[in-house]
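A protein record in our archive is deliberately plain, so that people and models can read it alike. The record that follows is passed on verbatim for readers who wish to inspect the format.
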Amino acid sequence: MEKVVQALQNEGIRGKVKIIIGGAPVGADFDHRIGANAHGADATEIVTLARILMNQPGIRAQINQRLWEISEKNARMVL
């Protein structure tokens, strides 16, 4: 998980995405240590957290923009 956060930072897009980690093996303090935005105890809690983060102003637009960028990049790779 730490490698994913670091990779996002290296690509310069960490500020454009939200990271939620969780599950029984992951402690609540681990999210702070690796730089995740939130921690959920189980899948249900993680979905609830995702919905909360999605409703923050600007988040939905940022996600849509990033998805568009990814699709454009993939389209260029195919051409």
